[in-house]
Amino acid sequence: MYNIKTLNSISEKGLELLSKDEFMVSNEAENPDAILVRSANMLEMEFGSNLKAIARAGAGVNNIPIDRCTEKGIVVFNTPGANANGVKELVIAALFMSSRRINQGISWAQSLKGKGDEVPKLVEKGKSQFEGPEIKGKRIGVIGLGAIGVMVANDAVSLGMEVIGYDPFISVNAAWGLSSSVIRATSLDQIMSTCDYITVHVPLGPETKGMFNKEKFAIMKKGARIINLSRGGLVVNKDMLDALDDGTVACYVTDFPEQDLLGNDKIITIPHLGASTPESEENCAVMAVNQVKDYLEKGVIKNSVNFPNCDMAVKPGCTRILTAHENVPNMVGQVTSILAANKVNIADMLTHHKNNIGYNMIDVDGKVTEDIYTSIKNIAGIKMVRIIEEKSLY
Ligand SMILES: NC(=O)C1=CN([C@@H]2O[C@H](COP(=O)(O)OP(=O)(O)OC[C@H]3O[C@@H](n4cnc5c(N)ncnc54)[C@H](O)[C@@H]3O)[C@@H](O)[C@H]2O)C=CC1
Ligand SMILES: O=C(O)CCC(=O)C(=O)O
């Protein structure tokens, strides 16, 4: 039986894939085998000795201590693209909101309650304060052309905008999916200095933290509108507030409200709703659960952010040994030497590595004793060993 802990509400569509015979799912599980999480902050969390995997039902993994997980041999998954359409639709809404002062106008209209028959007249008199430009023909910069950025860029083309995209690490898949009308920016500054609208779709990390700062606002086209449904930390709030004050930025839409951003007429604060659609929540949960299940049951890795993808068909009657180790010479050799010394025959084997971590699947004939398990675990540089028979032993 595997124990799965949920840290946020995870769609039933995903959880129902975990059969009750094999998985116990609870938000109170102690020392779980795996954790399913959305946005809960896990950065300071202590991990139990059983923890093998964390699956983020979503894209951003900045709430998970990836390096610490890698060090402990814990595989971290996310669900690439599963909520991209939900976010894209809200970005398009944000684009219109940033231009047409829709929500400010709605709040104002609501404030007329109690004015009786005067309301229609007051509306016509007051509406000019909420005027805003059309987006057709305007230039939009899309920073980050991954699952969300490509969809946003393509839809902006359909809306008649001139679209310029910046992503020095764009994947071949994303490039294939991008409209040929999208102009390629060769620098971030090209976006910052020429666009009427800027939307950002990059992960938050050391390289992107604070990418919207006073140096960038200094070169920005006056009156730019900025949409940030990625992460609050991409923007230096103080510098943004100054840029809004002096008119450099006409409107800032963020999915990440913070105290200092509230109550400003030029800031639209959305309560992190980018992926809050039944469709996105289901897609993410199904993908996250399937990935965790495959890993716990078979050691198969797909869509991990810290481990390599690795998949090998299970050989009937075999025992599967999984190891994670430092990506240095002779790690696999030491494992196979232990097997040879114990007269264990290898039926199949697969090794992959990603950055500084190596991952190894070995199917052997017959059983693996606890002594063999312990000898492998004691090899210097081994971060994790698991033995899977019909169900996981260790
Ligand atoms: N508001 C919400 O509810 C949601 C927010 N997000 C945020 O959106 C971000 C993007 O999501 P996806 O498009 O699904 O991820 P993705 O991984 O498909 O795309 C990210 C893209 O950013 C690019 N990139 C990385 N560093 C860059 C840099 N310095 N400059 C330009 N491009 C850079 C990558 O090459 C990649 O193409 C997530 O990391 C997350 O923070 C994602 C889903 C929901
Ligand atoms: O689960 C959510 O609602 C947040 C989604 C998100 O921010 C992400 O996928 O990065």
TrEMBL record:
Reaction catalysis annotation: (2R)-3-phosphoglycerate + NAD(+) = 3-phosphooxypyruvate + NADH + H(+); (R)-2-hydroxyglutarate + NAD(+) = 2-oxoglutarate + NADH + H(+)
EC primary class: oxidoreductase
Stored CDD domains: PGDH_like_3
Keyword Ligase: no
EC nos: 1.1.1.399, 1.1.1.95
SUPFAM superfamilies: ACT-like (SSF55021), Formate/glycerate dehydrogenase catalytic domain-like (SSF52283), NAD(P)-binding Rossmann-fold domains (SSF51735)
Gene3D superfamilies tied to this protein: 3.30.70.260, NAD(P)-binding Rossmann-like Domain
Pathway listed: Amino-acid biosynthesis; L-serine biosynthesis; L-serine from 3-phospho-D-glycerate: step 1/3
Keyword tags: NAD, Oxidoreductase
Keyword Thylakoid belongs to the record: no
Molecular functions per Gene Ontology: NAD binding; phosphoglycerate dehydrogenase activity
Stretches assigned to the ACT domain: 320-390
Function comment: Catalyzes the reversible oxidation of 3-phospho-D-glycerate to 3-phosphonooxypyruvate, the first step of the phosphorylated L-serine biosynthesis pathway. Also catalyzes the reversible oxidation of 2-hydroxyglutarate to 2-oxoglutarate.
Sequence similarity: Belongs to the D-isomer specific 2-hydroxyacid dehydrogenase family.
Listed name of the protein: D-3-phosphoglycerate dehydrogenase
